[in-house]
Write a structure and sequence with these properties.
Blueprint (H helix, E strand, L loop, with lengths): L5 H23 L3 H5 L4 H21 L5 E3 L12 H11 L8 H9 L9 E9 L1 H6 L4 E8 L2 E14 L2 E12 L3 E6 L7 E2 L13 E3 L8 H11 L6 E2 L4 H7 L5 E4 L14 H9 L3 E3 L20 E4 L4 H10 L4
Length: 328
């Protein structure tokens, strides 16, 4: 993969790899007793640690680029959360042994931008927090936005099998606009190999990829759309932007993020990386009314409603089905 964003791609891959190693270490240390108490502190520690590492690396290589991330360090600066900060620092030390608490806080806060700019990065340090806590799927999602359009994306999925090698667990999907998408191991250096969407053109043979949590997208509306399309195969259910990776690699044909309430506006970090991965694999991504995703508003997709990702061949039929089902 070569072109105008060669340096950005290499930096983004290494940043996501560092973050994924930290997140993986935290996830495998979660004890059943922690989950039974509904203690969310492990995902909090991993969230902040992941953002600190990614923003640190972006700051080193692209100091003038703002970062619109999900977290801010304000809560970690309070006395009540000193123990959480110490745990974040301990985990960051696995990658950056010399890091101080104040440096970690400043790296996290570097991801606190919310304003539009001509060029910026957007980061979800852990997308799929409930999947993370269950020991299942989550993602580290990083994308470069230039003039309101995603140009580079690295979608790290620590618990997903590489579609190009079913023996490798932990995969990064690397996309550059107009250059395609490849996969590479998150945890071991290796070759990058291309992936592409499926060639299924008959909606009755298609599969949905859906959230585990119905609060993230309306499962009822999705069922109505499935009925219109004649889809009868079971949906693939998993958390996070890993769903985009499933569509991009041809394991499912349709992912719909349908609004759960009329006033809901999607966050850009939930979609920027995954949407570019699907597009560069040959698929199509729009909102529920067929409009391209517009990242020029800052932290939210203010000009869009919901998100639809397909293998491209089925996209128009899905949009028509949304209208017939009264969703769009």
């Amino acid at each position: 993969m070569s072109g105008a964003y060669t340096t950005e791609v290499e930096v983004a891959i290494e940043a996501v790899r560092e973050a994924a190693r930290l997140c993986h270490a935290v996830q495998v240390s979660i004890e059943p007793a922690t989950l039974s108490k509904k203690d969310r502190s492990p995902v909090t520690v991993a969230d902040f640690g992941s953002q600190a590492l990614v923003c640190r690396m972006l700051g080193q290589h692209f100091p003038s680029d703002p970062v619109i991330g999900e977290e801010a360090a304000a809560m970690l600066r309070t006395a009540d959360n000193r123990a959480i900060l110490e745990r974040v620092l301990t985990n960051v030390h696995m990658e950056v042994p010399e890091a101080t608490a104040e440096q970690v806080l400043s790296w996290i806060d570097r991801g606190g931008s919310r304003n539009r700019s001509d060029r910026f990065w957007t980061l979800d340090p852990i997308d799929g927090t409930k999947g993370f806590l269950r020991g299942e799927q989550y993602a580290v999602a990083l994308a470069l936005i230039v003039d309101g359009v995603a140009q580079v994306a690295v979608l790290g999925c620590p618990n997903l099998m590489d579609p190009n090698d079913g023996e490798v667990k932990g995969v990064a999907f690397v996309a550059v606009r107009s250059e395609g998408v490849t996969t590479t191991s998150l945890f071991v250096d290796g070759d990058r190999r291309a992936v592409s969407v499926s060639e299924i053109g008959d909606p009755s043979n298609a599969r949905f990829c859906e959230s585990v949590e119905s609060g993230h997208s309306s499962h009822g509306d999705a069922a109505r759309v499935a009925g219109v399309l004649g889809i009868h195969r079971d949906s693939i259910r998993l958390d996070s932007q890993a769903k985009y990776a499933i569509v991009a690699s041809g394991q499912a044909e349709i992912y719909m993020r349908l609004p759960t309430r009329p006033d809901y506006v999607e966050k850009i970090w939930d979609h920027a990386a995954g949407s570019l991965v699907v597009q560069e694999a040959g698929g199509t991504v729009t909102d529920i009314r067929g409009r391209p995703l517009d990242y020029s508003f800052g932290g939210k997709l203010e000009g869009n409603s919901g998100v639809i990702a397909t293998n491209g061949l089925l996209h128009d039929e899905v949009l028509d089905a949304l209208k017939s089902a009264g969703v769009a």
